[in-house]
Amino acid sequence: MHSRAEVYSPLQNTAVWIAAWLYNVESSDETLDALRDLGGRHSYLGGPLLPLLRDIRTTADLDTPGPAVRLILWGPGQAPGLLAGSPAMEALTPAGAIVVRGHDASHILVPRYTGTTVQWRWFEETRRLPEPAWLSPGEADALLAQATNQAALLIDATGPTRHDLPNPRLTVGTLADFYDTPGLPAGVTARAAKLFARADQVAAIIETVTDRLNDHSFDPQLFALWRHIRTARMAGVADAVLDYQR
Q1: From CA 244, how far away is CA 157, in angstroms rounded?
Q2: Which residue has the higher pLDDT, 192 or 212?
Q3: Is the N or the C terminus of the chain less surrounded, counting Cβ atoms within 10 Å?
Q4: What pTM was computed for the model?
């Protein structure tokens, strides 16, 4: 199992960019450019991405309290916040989904990443979706801080590496740079940015230990770390969206 699929999804930044565009913080051109950086060429209903943004604008409920845009991530030990057996659930990939709150339904955007292209599908759900954890940024950060300490112990426990393997901590720095690109839109709260940065750092440590150093002796402990990373990313998106709403 490649750990990156469990600890990283371009949907984190995609969701924040869509929210920034919905609340008129970023332009359509800037948003489209950012989404291309996050996945390559996007398509919706066989055509370009702009109609998807227009449909989001038309259907989104920006007035009801609570985040109008939510990120859904899932994986081992963490079920997705969608209804079992629903079309959206059947279409879900490991990358996750974005939920846009509508006036009478939840609009679920499910991407499929294939190389340098992203294909989007749109689903509507009139039934109430499962409630997310709704952790505050502080609560999510505390959980992830604990995960960070555990991850640091993992990398230190690897001890000296073979001469043909990279230095673990240098590799972490390089991978952290990867996870941090291509950036976030204007106005993202410091709390959300801190959560994303911490999630990126722990993700880089996990990838270093499991994939670069090929050490799978800690795999059982990594399941909990993956869950904390995904939860922090979802909480960070919710915080950023709520701040745009204010």
Answers
A1: 42
A2: 192
A3: C
A4: 0.86
